[in-house]
Amino acid sequence: MKIGIVGLGFVGLSLSSVLASKGYDIIGIDIDEEKCKTISDGISPFFEPELENLLKNGLKKKLEISNDFSLIRNCDFIFVTVGTPQNTDGSINLSIIKKAVSIIGENLQRSKKKPIILVKSTVIPGTMKKNILPILEKKSNKKAGKDFGLISNPEFLQESTAIRDTKFPHVVVLGGYETEFMKKAKKLFIKLHPNVPIVITNHQTAEMIKYANNSFLATKISFINQLSNICQKIPGANVDDIAKTIGLDPRIGKLFLNAGPGYGGSCLPKDMKALINFANTTGVTPTLLNAVEDVNMKQLEQIISIIKQRLGNLTSKRVTILGIAFKPNTDDIRNSIAIELIKKLQKRKVIITIHDPKAIKNTKKFFGDKIKYANTIVDALSESQCVVIMTQWKQYEKLNNNQFKNMKKKFVIDCRRMLTNKQLDVDYFAIGLGKEN
Ligand code: UGA
Asked: In sequence order, which residues have a C-beta less than 8 Å from that of residue 170 and are 6 or more positions away?
């Protein structure tokens, strides 16, 4: 049995590496030749814990990486894991996935196999039936359900735990028609994940499950962020104690209640916008989803107004930002709130110095010499008038008076409440904590 995986981003490369290291015969395909070369050398194009080891291990077994799409002709299963970015109006941009399935379709025409195509890319409800299926049938001159299977198989992995999530998903969703292909796909997943619930449903429900999942997570975050803003007005109140306690109620659950500067990353903001856009096209006004987004935007405004309150006119003021990656243990800065913060501070002519354990290289690609980059936390803080802790990197937990001593003004904004239990000789503001009078 041969498995093809088209699109070698976080999802595709994690899946290729995990399956190959288990001994499956895998062909990982990406249109980007350079990227293919890097991956073939055992180097991951992005930082993801455990990925590179697994990739190297897979390459020693039966993992082949190529930009030659004709190799999918020999595949029994083809996973589509390409990106679905957003248009400027927030709607989903399907051009990449349409192109990918077009090429898959063309190759299907010349294939003797009856493969099962599983689409992991996040797509708006209706896309599989309205776009993907017709493209595949037209380009291959074959019939879905007879000559090949087509299944929606949304992915729920998180960056920074992509390998663990790929190995141990909490659920497998298979959307499509109840054909022999579906039975075969189910068999594969039972073998891969013996004790994991498998939900079989139709395409449009599977597509919607993915948006339901991400928008619910975003809702939890905006909920706790709104509460954290209220807590800030109640002397002595602590949002983490509240989150911990409500999280013990099984109806609520403890995860995704960590108040902060708002959600970022390549998925939650994009998927929220796509769902809002889609809801509007159906005639449903997405009041709650709009509010979730609104709260998210306002978190950042709040941080800027706190900086302004303390520093006054921001022109030529020195601000340090600790953590640029959209969350710890990744070098990914796509849609990171820290990037938005930098952009807004730049407009106010602030002199910005940043530190991040992994994301400096990516940040440099974005801002070039418009901001300063520090290799150490102490360097980043030297002469600064305000430091904002944006990303919950472990190393920031160790911050102490010694590291703050060279700041010009010791004003600390802690968006992640990492330093709450420390006796610090600084002017300290933490999101979600009500200052005692
Ligand atoms: C998210 C979902 O969690 C995955 O299930 C999904 O598969 C993925 O999107 C996707 O659609 O591909 P990811 O983008 O890797 O995963 O990041 P998250 O861990 O969800 O974090 C997103 C943002 O929310 C980060 O900025 C993080 O700092 C923030 N966050 C998260 C909070 O502010 N508080 C929390 O309690 C949790």
From this structure: 156, 196, 197
Structure tokens at 184: 């075969």
Amino acid at 298: K
State the chain's maximal CA–CA distance in angstroms: 76
**Residue 231 is among the residues annotated as catalytic for this protein:** no
Distances 292 to 61, 195, 258, 288, 391 between C-alpha atoms, Å = 46, 34, 15, 6, 21
Tens-digit pLDDT profile for residues 387-420: 999 999 999 999 999 999 999 999 999 999 999 9
Q: Is the pTM of this model over 0.90?
A: yes
Q: What is the pLDDT of residue 436?
A: 83
Find the catalytic residue in 36, 75, 231, 267.
Answer: 267
3-state helix, strand, coil in the chain (%, to 5): 45, 15, 40
* Tokens 């890319």, located at residue: 121
CA distance 363 to 350: 17
Return the residue whose CA atom lies nearest to atom 24 of ligand 1. Answer: 263
Residues of 33-45 as b/e, b for ≥16 C-beta within 10 angstroms? eebbeebeeeebe
pLDDT in tens, 127-148: 999 999 999 999 999 999 999 9
* Sheet strand arrangement including 427-430: 372-373, 351-355, 318-322, 386-389, 411-414, 427-430
> If you take atom 36 of ligand 1, which residue's CA is the nearest one?
256
Residue to mutate (ligand 1; options 158, 209, 391; most atoms within 8 A of CB):
158
Cα–Cα separations (whole angstroms), residue 389 to 30, 242, 248, 320, 327: 36, 22, 28, 9, 12
Pocket test for ligand 1, best of 171, 327, 392, 416 (most atoms within 8 A of CB): 327
Q: Show the ligand 1 pocket: residues with CB < 6 angstroms.
A: 122, 155-159, 214, 217, 221, 256-258, 260, 263-265, 267-268, 271, 326-327
Closest ligand 1 atom, CA of 220? 36
What does the DSSP 8-state code read for residue 338?
H
